[in-house]
Amino acid sequence: MWKVIWKAAIVILLFLGITLPCLAQEYTVAALIEESKKWDGQAITLEGEVIGDIMFRKNMAWFNISDETGAIGVWIDTSEAKKINLTGNYRHHGDNVKISGIFHRALKEQGGEMAIAGESIEIYTSGKEIIHPIQTIRLAILGIMTILTFIIYLIKLKIFNH
């Protein structure tokens, strides 16, 4: 009897291990935009980098999240938005977050913008500073061009003054 139960348990676990990952829906910004009618009003989870500024309005906040396919706005409670430590810009890579909420083709609170009405934020990677090294070749070219411009200016000044 126990052999049958063990075999059944193994078959069930193998079946779940194969089928459950297939059932999980991975969302991208591009997929949400392209199939906005399909996902409108649906609970979703989206992963990406928080970019730009967080705009706080009373007890709510608005920010953008970007993945490799695009960016979309998130409208969420201030207490959740305050979990974000760093937003992305030229000098920083923003926090990577997992946003859970309801996707809206036209979020009324944001004047009809396509957005996610967020319910929770999970930070899975903290943001960091981006180092942009000075490229010495470009600096050398700049120096040479500056000197050449100054020489041309002096030659032109000498020609027009005689």
Task: Note the main attributes of this structure.
single chain; 162 residues; alpha+beta; OB fold (Dihydrolipoamide Acetyltransferase, E2P); 5-stranded mixed beta barrel; two-stranded antiparallel ribbon; 38% helix; 37% strand; elongated
- How many strand segments? 7
What level of helicity do the residues show? Answer: 25-40%
Order of helices and strands: HHHEEEHEEEEH
Q: Characterize the largest beta sheet: strand count, sense, and whether it forms a barrel.
A: 5 strands, mixed, barrel
Overall mean pLDDT stands at 86
Descriptive overview:
- The chain has 162 residues and is α+β, with helices and mostly antiparallel strands.
- The chain has a domain of 104 residues: Nucleic acid-binding proteins (OB fold (Dihydrolipoamide Acetyltransferase, E2P), Beta Barrel), CATH 2.40.50.
- Helix content is 38%, strand content 37%.
- It is built from 5 helices and 7 strands.
- The strands form 2 sheets. Strands 1-2-3-6-5 form a 5-stranded mixed β-barrel. A two-stranded antiparallel sheet has the order 4-7.
- The radius of gyration is 27 Å and the shape is elongated.
- 20% of the residues are buried.
- About 4% of the residues have low confidence.
Please render the helix and strand layout as text.
Elements: H1 2-23, H2 29-34, H3 36-39, E1 43-57, E2 60-67, E3 70-77, H4 78-81, E4 92-93, E5 96-107, E6 113-125, E7 128-129, H5 136-161
Parallel strand pairs: 3-6
Antiparallel strand pairs: 1-2, 1-5, 2-3, 4-7, 5-6
